[in-house]
Amino acid sequence: MLSARQELLLRKVVDGYAESGQPVGSKSLASAADVDYGPSTIRNELAMLEEHGLLAHPHTSAGRVPTEAGYRYFVDHLVDRETRPAVELTLVRRELDDAMRQTTETLSQLTNLLAIVTAPPIETTTIRHVEVLLLQPQVLMVVVITSTGGVSKRVITSESPVDPGLADWAASYLNERLVGRGLGARTLRSRLADPELGRSERTFVDQVAPAFTELEDTAQDTLYVDGAHRLLAEGRLDDLAQLNELMQVLERRALLLRVLRQTIGTREVFVRIGHENELPALHGLSLVAANYGLPQRNLGTVSVVGPTSLDYAVAIGTVRSAAGQLSRFIEDVYSA
Question: What is the pTM of this model?
Answer without folding.
Answer: 0.72
